[in-house]
Design brief:
72 residues, mainly alpha, 64% helix, 0% strand
Length: 72
């Protein structure tokens, strides 16, 4: 399938964002079909092993988010 970029540019920014969200949702609905590089899978396995070895080093999401974005 080919989409003409000029046709996309005729859409408003809001329409393009909405389209992008719809495309993303359609991809997320089929996670088993999303290609993932072997290196990424290896790194995930490494991080899970690190967590299993020392789970106390994990940072709760709220703390991490606050450190990145500030308190809610």
């Amino acid at each position: 399938m080919t989409i003409d970029p000029k046709a996309l540019l005729k859409l408003s920014v809001e329409e393009r964002i909405e389209l992008m969200g719809q495309i993303w949702d359609s991809i997320a609905a089929e996670p088993d079909r999303v290609p993932v590089f072997e290196e990424v899978l290896d790194r995930v396995d490494e991080r899970l092993a690190e967590h299993d070895h020392a789970p106390e080093t994990a940072i709760p999401w709220r703390e991490l988010r606050a450190s990145l974005l500030g308190p809610e």
